[in-house]
Structure formats: structure tokens, C-alpha cells
Amino acid sequence: MADEPILSVRDVNKTFGGVKALTEVSFDLMPGDILGVIGPNGSGKTTLVNVITGFVRADNGQVLYKGKNLVGKAPHKIADQGLTRTFQVMRPYFSLPAYKNLIVPLFSPRARRTGGWRGGGRMGSRDTVAVDILEEIGFERESYVPYKTASSLPTGYLKRLELARCLALRPEVIICDEVFSGLSMSEMASMVPLMEKLQMEGITLIMVEHRLRELFRLANRVMVLNFGAKIAEGSPAEVMENKEVKEAYFGSEEVFSYV
Ligand SMILES: Nc1ncnc2c1ncn2[C@@H]1O[C@H](COP(=O)(O)OP(=O)(O)OP(=O)(O)O)[C@@H](O)[C@H]1O
Hints:
Layout: E1 7-16, E2 19-29, E3 34-38, H1 45-52, E4 60-65, E5 68-69, H2 75-80, E6 83-85, H3 103-106, H4 109-114, H5 126-136, H6 155-167, E7 173-177, H7 185-200, E8 204-208, H8 212-218, E9 221-226, E10 229-234, H9 236-241, H10 243-249
Parallel strand pairs: 3-8, 3-9, 6-7, 7-8
Antiparallel strand pairs: 1-2, 1-4, 4-5, 9-10
Helix pairs in contact: 7-8
Adenosine-5'-triphosphate binds next to strand 2 and helix 1.
């Protein structure tokens, strides 16, 4: 069973008007993977995330999660099965304290079924569970950060809050849409071990990223999109050496010099 993909995208196409956002995209995600998805602006990365998570319907093709096709299912049904995502443009309830942002997912059917966070099967007070999750993910409880209004938090915490909302569902897969974007160097540096920790806890990750240096440290495999089509897939080292990637995606070989 461990050799079976947890997620299998098969020949997915998506067109917006005349724009081919995705063309015959196929890939497998194995349990425990950190799969990086990279590509230039407009190459189809976010559309792929939207198709997998039900926010956009594929024109054709299949998205098999644990063998069952998700195409046509609503986003909340997909999240209920343990396949969750963060958003590039974050959407917290800005006027609420950070921990209150977790109450909605903690009241979801999945959280109820799975017992929320580490409650060992029984859900404790949801407020307590929410603060526990935030602490787990780097909100310092002793500094009262979980209790601060979301609008007052810097980007680094808001990115973590996005992840925390996923974690409240006890996900099996999290798709992170540009978790490093907008972060300071130190925020990025602290995000890397956090992603490693999620992987060690058994969560399978897809990371859509522009920040190659941090991504290549984390990902065991990388897929490259260009104009909606997959042009390469392999280890970070293989992708970095791929001539088509260097030329078609980056336009020159220099981009990898800083990785
Ligand atoms: N809802 C939409 N309506 C029309 N065109 C769209 C829509 N969503 C995406 N597109 C187009 O599809 C193509 C792929 O866009 P997408 O946002 O998936 O790329 P991306 O790789 O995520 O880009 P970025 O790195 O800039 O976030 C682009 O040409 C974009 O303009």
C-alpha cells in the first residue's frame, strides 16, 4: 500500500477562454513526499492546485485521491477527506484573534471524526485545541501571540495561520501555495524546519514555490510547468541540470546560480 500514490493526477486539461492553463498534466504523489511545483508566472501552478482541491473544475482528466476521482467534488468535500490547501492570497478572519480562526475547521465534520488535534480521540475545548495547534506551529503562547488579532500579525504568522487552519482538519495532504512568499529571510529560515516537522508527522506535502533555494532544500521531487504543460520532473538536482528547464523556464542558465 505504501507504494501506491496517495494522489494521482491523470491527463488533466483546463482552458480559460483561449488560454490553455493546463495541458495533459499527469503526476503521482507518494505518501511522505514533499513535491515541489515550480514554473514561471502564468505557467499553471495555481490552476493545478485549484483543480486538485475542487476550486476549479478540470475540462477532462482525473484527480485520483486514494484511488477515487475528485473531479466535480466541492472543495469542502475534498478537505473533508484530508486533502487541504493554503492560499497564496491569505484569507483569515482579520478582526478575530488568531486562535478563533481555527474554530470553523475545528467544528468541521472531519475534525469531529478525527478528534481534532492530538486529543487522542476526544475533542477537548476547541479554544484550547486551537491554541495548542498554533503553539505547535510557532505561535508563542507565553507571549500571547495566539490571542492577538489576525490583522495585527506579520506575514510570517499569517502564513503559519494558513497552515494551522489545514492542521485543524488533521490532513493527510497539504498543498501549500507559495508559503515562502512575502516572508523575511529569517521568517523563511524558520519556515523550513516547520515544513520538515509536518513531513515527519506523516503529512504529505505539495509546495508550489518561487523560492527555489528553500524549496530545493525540502523537496525530494520537483515538477516543472511551462505554459501549462509539465516539462520536467525529478530530484532537485536533476531538475537543476535539465536543459529544457534552464532554457524554456528560466530563459538562461543563470537562475540556478544562487540556489
Ligand atoms: N480564472 C481565470 N480566468 C481566466 N484565465 C485564468 C484564470 N485563472 C488563471 N488563468 C490564466 O491561466 C494561466 C495560468 O495561471 P496560473 O495562475 O495558474 O499560473 P501560476 O503558475 O500560478 O502563476 P503565478 O506564478 O503568477 O501565480 C495564466 O495565463 C492565467 O492568466
